[in-house]
Design goal:
Elements lengths: L5 E4 L5 H12 L5 E2 L6 H10 L8 E4 L2 E4 L1 H9 L3 H9 L1
Length: 90
């Protein structure tokens, strides 16, 4: 597992990746990035970890696969993101 409780798989020019990272940064959350730009092995590892999903970003909080940017914002809107982040932080 990563050294951080939150891991995001982004690409450099993806607006959804930037949006997801912006929300996490706004919340003061440290996260690891596994950039998948042009890295076929990293993208395959991301897809395997994300249950076959190939779009970016793919976001994990602890061992939970959150999904993509829209999923992250939906968790936040439902009031479920902060408790999840608190649990993952230990």
């Amino acid at each position: 597992m990563s050294s951080q409780a939150v891991v995001i798989y982004p690409t450099m020019f993806c607006p959804y990746c930037h949006g997801a990272k912006a929300l996490l940064a706004k919340k003061g959350v440290a996260f690891d990035e596994v950039k998948v730009d042009g890295d076929r092995a990293a993208r395959q590892a991301m897809s395997a970890r994300a249950g076959g999903r190939t779009s970016v970003p793919q976001i994990f909080i602890g061992d939970r696969h959150v999904g993509g940017c829209d999923d992250l914002y939906a968790l936040n809107a439902a009031g479920e993101l902060d408790p999840l982040l608190a649990l993952a932080a230990g």
